[in-house]
Structure formats: C-alpha cells, structure tokens
Amino acid sequence: MSLSGLLPLLGETEQFAALLNSLRAPRAQSAVIAPDPATECTVATLWRESAAPIFVMTPNPGSARRLHDRLFTWLGDDAPIFHFSESEDIPFERYVPDRGASHARLRALAAMRGDVKGVKQPLVIASVNAAAQATLERAVFDSSTHTLSVINRIDLESQTRQWVDMGYIHEPTVEIPGTFSRRGGILDIFPVSTDRPVRIELFDDEIESIRFFDPGTQRSAAKTRSVIIPPALETLPMLADQERVQELLGNMDFAGTSDEAQRRIPSELSHALAGELLDEISYYAGFFNLGNVFDYMPAESLMVALRPGAIEETSQGQDRRMTQLRALLGVARFPVLRGVDCGGA
Predict the structure, then answer these.
(1) pLDDT mean over 54-80
(2) Do the beta carbons of residue 342 and residue 322 sit within 8 Å?
(3) C-beta of residue 129 within 8 angstroms of C-beta of residue 60
(4) How many other CB atoms are found less than 10 A from the CB of residue 236?
(5) CA distance 41 to 155
(6) What distances in angstroms separate CA 39 from CA 32, 33, 45, one per listed residue?
(7) How many Å apart are CA 298 and CA 246, to the nearest integer?
C-alpha cells in the first residue's frame, strides 16, 4: 500500500512552500523541526515537490535502513530509492567481503551519475558511517562506465578484458550481479545497476540484439536498445589514479613493523597493481579508493542531514574507535602513512 496520496496535503501547506522556496537559492540552508514519525513523510514530500535528486544522511546504519524501507510506503515500490550502505570492510583484517554491499553502493553511485536507466531524480539514503567510507573516484567511475547499443561494433577480446578490469567476474553462466559469460557470439552480463542481466547477441562484430533474461531459467525476455555498464567493484587498482597511488605507496613507513609485514605487503600491492586482484583486496582499499560519495552528487542536489548533532557525535565516536583499535592491535602488522592507518579503512 502506498501513502503517496497524502503527500500533497503537506506539500500544499504555506510552511512547506516557504521551505521549498528557500532551498531554490544556490547553497541555501534551512533547518526543519519535525517529530520522528513525520520524517519519512517530510523527506518523501521534499523529494516529490523539489524535482531534484536528494541525498539523505542519517546518524547510524539502523536509521538509514529504516528510512530507506519506509520511504517505499510513501512513494511506492517503483520509486528510485537507493541505499548507499556501509561497506563490509573490517579495519586491519584480511577477509573476502560479500560483494552485495559494494554492489548496492555502486548502484546508488550510478543513479547519482544518471547511469541507471529511467532514473532522473534518485533519492539516496546513507548513514554517516557509510558516507565516511572512501569509494571509487568519480573520474574513474565515469571513464569506465560505458553504454552498449544495438548496431554498435565491439571487439570481443578487448570488451571482456575491459569488464575484468572493471571488476566483473567471468563465469560459465550469469546468475548474480557483477558477473559475465561468453559463448561464441553471445555475451551475457549482469550490470550492478540493473535488476536483471542482459544477453548481447552479435553478428560478426556488430551487436544484433540486447535482451534481458531470467538468471534462474536463463530464458531471454524483453528487448532493449541499449545497456549501461558501470564498474562492479569499488577497489580497482589498475584504474585508480596511478600518480596518487604511487605517492601513497612512496610515503609508507615500515619502521617497527614485523618482517612478515615488510615482505608481504609490498608483494601483494605489486600483484594488485599488475591487475591480479586479490581476494583480500579490501585490506588495501585505502590506497585505491580515492573518492567519496559527495563527489557523485549532481550540482542541483539537495542534501538532508537528519539530527545533525547525532551525526556529529557518531563521527567523533567512529574516529575514537579507529584510534583505539589501532592502538590495541599495535603497529607491528601495519605500516604508517603520514600518521594514518593503511589497513584498508
């Protein structure tokens, strides 16, 4: 059930009209006091009446998830609401992360860059924790995102190589986002920005057709004229700004670290830069994730900070936690980079 029919009741009030008018000025700021139960309605009405992309920051992950889920009740199941969730990186720990969280973040970034078909006015929800986590540089995201259309000509080898560089995994069959397969003149790929994978059929080197297909049955469905393919990972060493990466690497100080760290870390970084993505690449995300979510916001966006005091408190608490964590673990495992941890946080 959608409550969207109630939104005009708020949108037509004199107070809301004054708020909306005040936000039309460049770099405008305005404070709104509303009880917690009215938060979803207020955000939904602002999105509906402003005709602008909106980025909402909340004090913690739980509040971001709740707001994201409840906004569908006000705007409908088809509303372009995206959750820029927290990445599952564990600071200073080696592990293979679940790609699902990264795909959700990349889908939100794609929406803000206008790379999700049919989405012109995204509504993105993020906790301050998620917004503080570094991500793929916008320049890298934009330069690697590409559109394939019917009658385009492509080179199979270079195209599949590009997808690998963008973080897509070659699989026998495509069932989950971030994967692709190749069978003769047919390419299947599941972009992280779409709900279904697409099947690209070639005649020689020309794209003859593009169809969505069901990943469960592998049966083709509706045709489409084009598909937008964004990166599938946030940590892409080969595509990162190499000058900045080398600067960071050159500033590493291994004094006080263990012999194992001094041997292992440079070796693994060398493999990563050679395009040999490690399962534990998130451990080195701090060297390659050189962007932030705010770089992706369109110029006409509105930003909503829910409970700014709580957001600031959470940020300060997170800083203290990271400082205490590194002190607890000691420096033997981690080099220092200008006094900042290089453990992937």
Answers:
(1) 96
(2) no
(3) yes
(4) 23
(5) 49
(6) 10, 10, 10
(7) 30
Picking from 97, 106, 203, 91, the residue whose alpha carbon sits closest to that of residue 152 is 203
Backbone CA torsion sign across 275, 278, 279, 281: negative
pLDDT > 70 in the chain, percent: 93
Q: What angle do CA 220, 222, 227 make, to 5 degrees?
A: 95
By residue count, the chain amounts to 345
Please check whether residue 197 is in contact with residue 212, taking contact to mean a CB–CB distance below 8 angstroms.
Answer: yes
Directed axis angle between helix 61-75 and helix 39-50, to 10°? 60
Q: CA 211, CA 224: separation in Å to the nearest integer?
A: 6
Q: Please enumerate, as own/partner, the contacts of 243-250 that have beta carbons within 8 Å and a separation of 24 or more.
A: 244/290, 245/273, 245/287, 245/288, 245/290, 248/286, 248/287, 248/337, 249/287
Encoded amino acid at 49, one letter: E
Read off the pLDDT of each residue in 114-135 and give the average, rounded to a whole number.
Answer: 95
For residue 131, give both structure tokens: 């917004």
Are 241 and 278 in contact, with CB atoms under 8 Å apart? no
CA distance 80 to 112: 11
Write the pLDDT tens digit of every residue in 38-55.
899 999 999 999 999 999
